[in-house]
Amino acid sequence: MLLIQTYSATMFPPSLQKGEGFGAEQVAEVRALEEEACLRGAQLQSLLQKWEEFDDNCASLEKDLEVLISSLPSLSLVEETEERLLERISFYQQIKRNIDAKHARLCQTLNEGRQLAASVSCPEPEAQIAKLEEQWLSLNKRIDQELHRLQTLLKHLLSYSRDSDELTRWLESSQQTLNYWKEQSLNVSQDLNTIRSNIDRFFLQMEKLPSREAISEMISWMNTVEPQVVGEDAELPPSSVSLVKRLLQKLKEFRMEMDYKQWIVDFVNQSLLQLSTCDVESKRYERTEFAEHLGEMNRQWQRVHGTLNRKIQYLEQLLESITENENKIQNVNSWLEAQEKRLKTLQKPESAVSMEKLLLDCQDVENQLAVKSKALDELRQSSLTMDGGDRPLLEDMASGINELCQKRNSVTSQVHQLRASVQTVLQEWKACDKLYDEAHMKTAQLTYSMEHSKPAVLSLQALDCQVQNLEALQDEAENGERSWEKLLEVIGRLKDSCPSIAGIIEEKYQDAHA
């Protein structure tokens, strides 16, 4: 450009305006071409610097992965005792922690590699990315599988030891009981004939049992049982699942006892048919009175038996519905607990890609929460319909649903907070990337301009032009310092949410700013 200005001043005197205009146009074109070349050169230099950094980071990560792979045990445990398993598990967990500590740098390197691959038409960065990802995933898979195998083996070993101890104690107790009954059996002097004699004597006593006494005994027993079956206490709705189970067990015991006493009812009814003709004519009044008592007993027996069966059927249906609702509650509770644990592990994403994936996960959890909320509302509003009547949910079940609703609200709040936090961090992250690219590009332009600002021919005019260029570059550098300050502010805010990746960016900032 200096040559063009000198040539124009020499060949076209100032009086020739046309020549002067021609020279100015040439100077403007050269200046524009120079600026475009400077910009393109700065872009290429920045791209080259990023490529070199990416190569260095890839080489460093590959070396770290090779060291971790070489540290893995090559031989299995010779003796898989509890102590050896715990040592091996602890060793693999330490390697896992070392891998996780490098995950942030891996994500940053892969992200930079993808940006580089999109900027150049060369397959090498994509091949490096694929190789690094494959090594990382292979190592993680290998460690996770071995950890799972060792932990499962340890779990089975502990279970085996515990069950073996319990079985040993049970066998010892059973052996003692068996020895005791063996000693008792040797001391018993009864033989088979004695046992048969006792049974015959029992049957003879049964035949001699007075029918009136049996009827009185049955009526007395039913008078005691009937209020408990059909009385006010039995009509009150149970307030908890445990009360339902206790009441059902009590009624089943009553029915079992009625089944045991059925032989008495059959015996008394049969005794009326066995009265002789002489007995009927001589004791007609007593027979009539006996028949009335027998009829009263049979009616009460049928009434109690029918009521008992209806109550048992009702409670069994009630318990079945309760069990079904409890299973639904347990499923929702298990899902909510799993989401709580999952959300705790998703608090600190380490890359923009993981943040975007985390936002999708939050949306998925919110969609599932809507489904679970609908199921909870249906459980809360539902009622157990029995015998044509509506019975509300039991107190403990209602309490369980209320607890689930509180847990659901807690998970919903956590998801909303996590979504808002991730969106804020993602915005900060994008702002950080944008500021870093701008500042890095501006620095590359200044560096490139300084390296190519030396005049080819030394002259007073050339030196004066160089001084002006350097002063302009200094002004641009001072103006660009604000971009670095903004970048440092964003990095400071990222340290709270993403300390590991913020540290990497800060390290890059210090190198680039220096």
From TrEMBL:
Q: Which UniProt keywords apply?
A: Membrane, Nucleus, Phosphoprotein, Repeat
A Pfam family per the record: Spectrin
Assign the protein's first listed, main location to one coarse class: nucleus
This chain belongs to which protein, by name? RCG62130, isoform CRA_a
Q: Per the record, GO CC terms?
A: nuclear membrane
| Location of the protein in the cell | Nucleus membrane
SUPFAM superfamilies in UniProt? Spectrin repeat (SSF46966)
